[in-house]
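User: I'm writing a tutorial on reading structure tokens. Could you give me a worked example: one chain, its sequence, then its tokens, then a sentence or two explaining what the tokens reveal?
Assistant: Sure. Here is the example chain.
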Amino acid sequence: MIELRDAAVVVDDPHGPVTLLEPVSLALPEHRIGIIGANGSGKSTLARLLNGLVEPSSGQVLVDGRDVVEDGREVRRRVGFVFTHPDAQLVMPTPVEDVTLSLRRTVRGRAERRRRALEVLDAIGLADRAEVSVHVLSGGQKQLLALAGVLATDPDVVVADEPTTLLDLRNSRQVADRLFALRQQLVLVTHDLDLARRCDRVLVVDSGRIVHDGPADAAVDHYVALCGETT
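And here are its predicted structure tokens:
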């Protein structure tokens, strides 16, 4: 389980310290957790705390009792991260090579890594694209490939930071359906309120603070009302 204990993020600025996330204490046991909020609210900072991509300036973030700072490698093995822009994750010429790269530390033998990579691509619906250039994939296919690279390492938790933001409706639905079908715990940062409503629990982040935490429908309604107050 993921726990935050008075975790805060403060960064240095030429004009003085800037608080990106005020101290927050949470336990996150639910299977599907959404994080919503305006651009710059701190929701991505919160998400990146969960696997140590961002380290807390104070307090602790724990994954199954392991500190994300002190035991970062083990935490990142347990918590996979899918970025908004798949090109930030895709580094090899073809899908099968990209997934194979994800397995280099956990699977011995080139042939076995390739076999496992093909299995992962088949499970995500990209078996027929295994050998094509990554550059000819659609946006949705690239996002699925990025997800495949994360799933290849068999994490316990998948954190997805606005994974459908850059996609058209068809691809957005395809990626979302894959995410919500995962057996792993899903932490989803999203602007898509329909997706947020599919979660078990939703956190609303505003100006670096969690201003609402509860069932999805109530949290989304709170965020909509909050947006109305600020327009």
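What the tokens reveal: The first strand starts at residue 2 and ends at 11. The chain has a mean pLDDT of 93.
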